[in-house]
Amino acid sequence: MGDTFGNTLTVLKMRLSLSQKEVAEIHLMLTTLPIPPMPVGLTMQYALLEDTEEKAAFEMATFTLVKDSLADDGIVNSHSIFAALSFFAKWSASTGTNPLQKHLDMQLKKDASLLRFIASVLDYNETAASYVSTDAKDAAILQLFITASQEWINTYLPENISITIHPAPKNKDIGFEHDLHIAMAHYCYSQGVLYNSKDSVLMCKVHDGLYSDFLEQQKNTAEDNAAGEDAREKIHEHMEIAAMYSQFPYHKMMQLCFDRLLQDCLYGHKNPNSDCDVQQNARDLLKMSFANYKAMTSKSACIEPPHMTACSPACGARTHQITPAMPFVCVESASDTVSVGKSATSADIESTSDTVSVGKSADSADVESASDTVSVGMNQLRESMHMHTNSAEFHVSMAAILDLFGSFLDWFESTFTARLYDFSCLLLNSRVE
């Protein structure tokens, strides 16, 4: 690929493409992230980005964001920013020193941001009575989600890039056919599936009602076809229920997303040692999660090589896995797995710290571990064959399978493919010269 920023032909070593697996991972991250798609305006600063390849990757990743920001309403979908920065992070992973450590630090920042997000949800719930109008509540929830979105964006950014978001001035004018309205409807469906796969306390009554309407519609269609009437195309659950969600205004769906999150924060986990009310119980669990997080980051700092500097919880740390007591279901956590909010025990912390491996070559233990990962993934795939493809269990199982095989492919790529790719680029550059 030619360098468009200079007159001399150079070959970019950076891979500016995405595999189907990588696209699927990003899509899964967006649909399970507890932050819904928000209407934002944005400002980007990257003049200090001097590396030609990294600049090319950033401009390609953010091209559609610039285009959306210049549209008539100036509304940019916050999920589009997340996706663009995920692309950029993958494309630029090979730049700089210790790319694996950079990736791990990013994931730890994400966990910290989610914990702070939970705290902000609980803070809002304690002050909700002070909002005298629906518009005031909507504005407060909008700002809460946008603040969380800004924190999530910051986890991707190197020091020489700045992206700042704010509520889009025309956020109240989002029509029923607007791209963001459609995106929110599909997000509400995906989140509804996730929450209704949990226990009855967390089930969303809105989603349950729409699902019942879908089953009735499906039954009527089957009866019409059996009666010899015009056969309709097979109806798909996702598309049909998303269409039902799209009958609600955007801000109503945003309120629904918040109500689900609040319910999850308050009732998603129970502290067996707590006899307090649900709000205090949620605070106690959050305090435990922050303590677990700090224990993990401080422990990982102790096992760093001498030349590394430990980071505070807010800016990342050197570790591979952490499982704080987060109620949200989110794929892109520190371990890149689907987290359903199990608390981190001392055994988890000990086990996690032992899995840290930075910059090691593939030895027999690495190969055995990768083989075990593939074996677990195959067993999970076999167990899911009998599940209904539209069931919540199937979605969760597929997410776990994606993670298992994704981990294996990441290991294989970092151990073998990346080195072969670098060697190929070296040969190609030699030929151009």
Notes on the protein architecture:
It contains 14 helices and three strands. Strands 2-1-3 form a three-stranded antiparallel sheet. 59% of the residues lie in helices and 3% in strands. The protein is globular. The two termini are 15 Å apart. Helix 5 packs antiparallel against helix 6. It has one domain. It is mainly alpha-helical.
Features:
59% helix, 3% strand, mainly alpha
Q: What is the structure about, briefly put?
A:
The chain has helices spanning 20-32, 52-61, 63-69, 78-91, 99-127, 134-154, 179-195, 205-226, 237-245, 250-267, 278-302, 346-354, 364-384, 392-432; strands at 39-45, 76-77, 162-167. The protein has 433 residues and is mainly alpha-helical.
Ordered list of secondary-structure elements with their pairings:
Layout: H1 20-32, E1 39-45, H2 52-61, H3 63-69, E2 76-77, H4 78-91, H5 99-127, H6 134-154, E3 162-167, H7 179-195, H8 205-226, H9 237-245, H10 250-267, H11 278-302, H12 346-354, H13 364-384, H14 392-432
Helix pairs in contact: 1-14, 2-4, 4-6, 5-6, 5-10, 5-11, 7-9, 7-10, 8-9, 13-14
Overall mean pLDDT stands at 74
Q: Main β-sheet, in a few words?
A: 3 strands, antiparallel
- Secondary structure class reads mainly alpha
| Terminal-residue CA separation | 15 Å
Model regions low in confidence, pLDDT < 50 over at least 5 residues: 1-12, 301-326, 329-362
Cα shape? globular
The tally of structural domains comes to: 1
Radius of gyration in whole Å, from Cα?
Answer: 23 Å
Level of helix content?
Answer: 55-70%
With helices defined by DSSP (H or I, 4 residues minimum), what is the helix count?
14
- Element pattern in H and E: HEHHEHHHEHHHHHHHH
**Strand order of the biggest β-sheet:** 2-1-3
Q: How many runs of DSSP E, i.e. beta strands? A: 3
Share in β-strands: under 5%
